[in-house]
Amino acid sequence: MPARVTRPVYPFLSTWSTSRYDLGYLRRGLAERDVQEKVIQYLNLQGHFAFALDSGAKRLRGRAVRAMAAAGMAPGRAGALIKGMSGGSQAGIPDVFAVLKGEGRAALFEVKKPAHIIPANTRTGVKLKQPAGQPTDEQLAFLLTAHQAGAIVGVVWSVEDVAYILTAAAEAALEVM
Ligand SMILES: [Mg+2]
Fold first, then answer.
1. What distance in angstroms lies between residue 6's CA and the mean position of ligand 1's atoms?
2. Are residues 45 and 99 in the same domain?
3. Last residue of a domain, which of 42, 64, 90?
């Protein structure tokens, strides 16, 4: 059995906590794509310059894997092949990049799908249909490197997570002054 490795505690939002979100949000069963679109929209509405780092490519890769699987290749093999072909690009690159209005500071966000909770006839009244997406070690390492270079970073499951991270960073910057 592989040894259990304890993850370091990262100096930025990186862990899911159901209590951070309201039930209505978790009942929507949002996909990562939905959250990413809202995050980019939110950042741009705030006057920042935000965009998806991997726009299009992810969807294209998914389509290629499905086509290979349809042609008879094992989905795992097709996925591994396509992943290998995406070559040059570094592992763990986050989903959203933003240049913050005025200060020009960089902000990088790894977007994950929130948990999907459905009403159920139990004591708690809810049932977990889909767990929340979790960041990979590569994604966390990438964010940590960016953080150490001065960027604002975090793993986000909602627009509110982004707002929280930006507010906390702005407050921290004020304290330094
Ligand atoms: Mg993601």
1. 22
2. yes
3. 90
Q: How much distance in Å is there from the Cα of 123 to the middle of ligand 1?
A: 33
* Full DSSP string of the chain: -PPP-PPPPPSS-----GGGS-HHHHTT---HHHHHHHHHHHHHHTT-EEEETTTTHHHHHHHHHHHHHHTT--HHHHHHHHHHHTTTSPTT--SEEEEPTTT--EEEEEE-PPPEEEE-SSSSSEEEEEPPP---HHHHHHHHHHHHTT-EEEEESSHHHHHHHHHHHHHHHHHH-
- Give the pLDDT of the chain (177 residues) as one tens digit per residue: 566 667 778 999 999 999 999 999 999 999 999 999 999 999 999 999 999 997 666 667 777 778 888 888 777 777 776 666 655 567 899 999 999 999 999 999 999 999 999 988 777 788 999 999 999 999 999 999 999 999 999 999 999 999 999 999 999 988 877
Ligand 1 centre to CA of 104 (Å) is 24
Tell me which of 72, 90, 108 is where a domain ends. 90
Going from the Cα of 34 to the center of ligand 1, the distance in angstroms, rounded, reads: 11
Same domain, residue pair 28 and 72: no
176 and 118 co-located in one domain: yes
Separation of CA 31 and ligand 1 centre (Å): 10
Number of domains in the chain: 2
pTM above 0.85, yes or no: no
